Amino acid sequence: MKLDAAPMTAKKFFIKFKKHFIWIAFSLFTGFTFVGYFTPIRELAGSYISFNLGPWEAFWVVFYGFATYGNAGFMREQVCKYMCPYARFQSAMFDDDTLIVTYDNIRGEPRGGRSRKAAAEAHNLGSCVECSLCVQVCPTGIDIRDGLQYECIQCGACADVCDTVMDKMGYEKGLIKFSTQHAMTNRWSDSQVMQHIRRPRVLIYSAILGLLVFGLLASLWVRTPFRVNVVRDGVMARMTNDGKIENVYRLQLMNGTEQTQYYQLKVNGLKDVEIEAEAQEGANHEKWIMVKPTESRWVIVDLKIPDGDMASGSHKIEFEVSAKGSKEVAIEKSVFLMPR
Fold first, then answer.
1. Model pTM?
2. How confident is the model over 176-208, as pLDDT tens digits?
3. Cys-Cys crosslink for 173: which of 68, 116, 163, 183, Cβ 3.0 to 4.6 Å?
4. Distances 20 to 10, 17, 140, 287 between C-alpha atoms, Å
């Protein structure tokens, strides 16, 4: 605050420039990581470093970077005061037995400065020495001594700094502390506070939170390590030079693991089908499609059957993809078109 109020000097300009440069660099890195969810991040990194991003990738990197810089580097505490929904949730879940950062008004008042050697009782003063450190360390700039305020994010920075002052003065800690409104009014002990914390509202909230955590862990446990999408080529069907009917498909193989995976492709629903795909041949003439860790790969697949093997029209088929060394199997449905 003192730096902001001071006139512009070379030192102030350098400090401001350095701060905003770091924030902008961090914000652009944030944008890069967000876009990396949708574009293979290794390819994105090369384009990012060489300033060769595609138009949409560049837009979203800048968009998320601008949002991060605007919120955290420029607006800062204004986000907590006016944009963050925490205060709205807090007011709905709050009651007089909720643990909050609170100031002991009875013990602290009347406030006043004094030397370390002076007894507070001799000057008819409370424990608060009016140092204002609690206000200075508050990220939203409020004075906790004025009571509960919606801007408070319960970080406890004011309680920590107040305890250091109480230590220096030789006073008991806890002038600002985590407590409840009922506890401060009725002067409850810690054990009495804990008895009132264990009540139906807290148990219900804890049960809901536990179910959410369990659901998250369960979804991670049963998640499929790979996924498959099938897209038909725009050409309906065509006759090859060797007299076979060909349909072309694009398969997207998504590897959700941290290791390179090899996938084998089978097609069900067609007799005497011939499969051509970009794959590596292994033992026993098996063909495996390689996908790098946490990446997706598009593979062109040609299916060919002898002309006359099937009636004309649309025939349902299934692409069966299995991972090498795993029992996991992904099945995607599609159709094979036989011309008249």
1. 0.54
2. 999 988 888 888 888 888 878 778 888 888 999
3. 163
4. 15, 5, 20, 53
